Amino acid sequence: MRIGDIDLGERPVLLAPMEDVTDASFRIVCKDMGADMVYTEFVPSDGLIRDAVKAIAKMKTIEEEAPIGIQIYGNNPEAMVEAAKMADHADEIAGGHGCDVIDINFGCPVSKIAGRGAGSGMMKEPDKMVAITRAVVEAVRKPVTVKTRLGWDDNSKIIVELAERLQDTGIKALTIHGRTRCQMYRGEADWSLIGKIKENPRMHIPIIGNGDINSAEKAKEYFDRYGVDGIMVGRASFGHPWIFREIRHYLDTGELPAPMSVTGRVALAKRHLGLSLDLKGETRGVFEMRRHLSCYFKGLPEFKDTRIKLVTTTDPQELYALLDYVNERWGGTPLEEAASVYGL
Length: 344
Known about the structure:
Strand content: 5-15%
CATH class of the largest domain: Alpha Beta
Largest sheet: 8 strands, parallel
Structural class: alpha/beta
Number of strands: 10
CATH superfamily of the largest domain: Aldolase class I
Number of helices: 16
Oligomer: single chain
Shape: globular
CATH architecture of the largest domain: Alpha-Beta Barrel
């Protein structure tokens, strides 16, 4: 699968952009674990054009993450064009690597975004969505992609026709989440319309499917059943970034890998914590790791007290010591061996 000049190989598996989750440290961990491409958190177009510090900081990436997409959202055409131009020059504006792809978010369902007519709120205004996309494509050098949903609700699933219109603007790939905006994340994702788009002989850009991919078996099943060019994994990667390695192993060999051991999870959590500290500093680095550390060790028996310590401790060295304790109590394999096995 190619996005412009970017070759992602056969059946790539991508990390979905997720607000408050896909920061640089998590993106790098997912790349370590086999994600073929990653995306930033959502970057608001109005925040970028106001030079908001937080919005600009979200565009900072490093070479280790490439290929990476910067995802922007908004519903004002002029602001979206200016934001796209800034993303196009993110290496100069925010520092670091910049981006390889500019992705437009027409899919986020949360009320504070969709309720203001941005994200999946744009599904109510398909003409405006197409116009914004065309204007962005014409304004930047980097490949432009779009991520969207089936429609606003069950009575307005417009994605089959809309996919052709978006393709005609010049985008280089289209990601479709198999739910409507009104579904949010409830119910089962419906990939049947995604498959219908792939069957359309007029479609020639890569189609990436998203929604409910939570195992290696399901990834392979959906590749085979719906013929998509790529698959995007979102919520299932949270606390489980090694899902990308599991999926790749299963796609390549037809066999499921051994489950990630507790010792392997500890080694990965240490890698993740170290990246967070390096990239954000001690205070913020520890604080923003809490949401991840609380999920790395799901399912361990009698873990409640240790989990509470992991999400309340503020000293990095105490956190490292707690992770060592997790390995001693529930793991038992030397961490150096696990790090070597998992390529950390």
